[in-house]
Structure formats: structure tokens, C-alpha cells
Structures
1.
Amino acid sequence: MFEGTVRSNLDPLEEYQDEHIWEEGYMNCALDKCQHGEEVRKKEGKLGSTVSKNGENWSMGQRQLVYLGRVLLKKSKVLVLDETTTLVDTATDNLIQQTLRQHFQTVLSLQLHIE
């Protein structure tokens, strides 16, 4: 993640209006699609909440959901992922997998799970 705000991480080029990013009930709300809208709404600064360098003040799972929100906002047709869920808990992994199945047509995912 980039140092800045939640909003600047979701929309670094400032191409989208807030309702596309997070307004509750908005049909194409990127944060709700990636299952992270409720979490951001709880934060005091909401979209203006601070993101420290490399997203160090966010958990790995929260970072992955913000990354996913960014590509949902761009409405990408093809998504290439490299070890997206390696460092996240099982619940977040399930959220990510569900979101990928629901909102993307083509996903190339590289995963390395040694058990």
C-alpha cells in the first residue's frame, strides 16, 4: 500500500467519485464488493483514514482487501494474482476467493501452499 489515505490507495489517480468507492447501498460500491466497506466505515477518518508506509498500520488481510477494492473499482476484465492469500487468515482467504468468483471473469492466480 502507499502512504496516504484509504481513498488514495483505492483511487491513486483520483478518477472516481466517492459513491463508486464506498457509499453504502450504491450498487457498484468497490469496498462493499471486496467485503471491506463495513471496516472502513468504522474507522474515524473513513476514506480519509491514514495509511502508513507500506500499509504497516493495516493487517495483511486488510491490505489484500484494499488491493482487491482497487481492481474492482477499475472494473478490470482480467486479473493476475501472485500469492494473494499466502499471509492472510482463513476467513479473509474465503472472502477473497468469494469476491474473485463473483466479480471477475478471468483470474490467473499463482499460489504456493506447502502443507
2.
Amino acid sequence: MILTIDSDAPVAPELTALLRRVMAACLSVEGLPDNCCAYLRLTDDAEIHEINLSQRGVDRATDVLSFPSVNYRRGTARDNLPLLRREYDPEQGGMFLGDIVISLERARAQAAEYGHSPQREIGYLTAHALFHLMGYDHMVDSDRAVMRAREEAAMALVDLKRD
């Protein structure tokens, strides 16, 4: 499992390790092999706003964005390994799931709002985005319930359960 993290500011080694454990937990919950990779950009509200506008036409900042390499239907990524294998990234040495962008500004604000640590919020946003990369969505209640259950299962594996 390879999670490439990019940020203009230094990222604490503890946060890097946590986010890699979150990715490993998500892959485990979904039944995907360890040789998957993703790219994570940690940024601020201004940059994520710009990306949201240019890529989605949405003129506001958000907490997290995800851009899958393959558009799976919910729960089918593990059954479509030949399709995922076509996304093999030789530089990373893994099957590329996609790109994730997280606003650290928004994550810190949400952590304060929800009463938990910024690490828990950033971990959750990483899990949330990874499940989007694996075909999950939350546009309707039934899909939201399935996605939340997967996210919480992964978060429990890394001991980042809700307080």
C-alpha cells in the first residue's frame, strides 16, 4: 500500500503513518490487495476552492475532494481487479486508485466543531475519500449508510472511532 502525501507545509511523521494505516484499513475492509496506491494533497481552503471550481464547477471550498482513476460501482472494486491493474503506476509500484485533496483548514475547523482531534478528522476524511475512489457515494440515504459503515469499520481498525 502506497500513499504519496504532498503538502506545502511539513507533515508530521506521525500523521503520515496514521494516514497510511487508514489507507491499509480501507483496503482491508474493501478486500483489495495491498499493492494499491493513491495520491493525497494536503492543502488549505483557498487551493481546494480553486480545484473545486476548476474541476467540478463548484465555487466554494470543501473539506475533501476525490478523483478516482476508475469509476467503480459501490462494492465492485475488488471484483474488477483486471480493470484496476490497468491503472498500475510503475513509479509508485502499485495500482493507482486516484487523487485525494484535503483542506487542513477545514479539517481542523470540523474537528473543533465535532469535538474530536484534528488527526481523527483528517483520518476520517482520508477514509471517506478512499471509499469514494472505490466506488462508494452518499447521495441517497441507503448509499450513505453503506458508505458510513465501511468508513467506520476502517476507522475502528486504526482506533479512530467516534468519541
3.
Amino acid sequence: MTSLTGKRSISLSRIAIYAVLIVAVLLYLVPLVVMLLT
């Protein structure tokens, strides 16, 4: 059980890190795209 919970926590932490990175990239790219389009 400990191994399963450990794997789940690691996967959740990875998903959280990837989600934060994706949000940061979107927040950085959206203004650039808006500036280019306008």
C-alpha cells in the first residue's frame, strides 16, 4: 500500500508541476500573441 500511495503522490506532484509550467507558459505567450495580432 505504501508503494502505491507513494507512486500516486509522485504522479500528482508531477501533474501539479506540469500544470504550473503550462499555466506560466500560457500567461507568458498570451500577451505576446495579443500584441502580435493587434
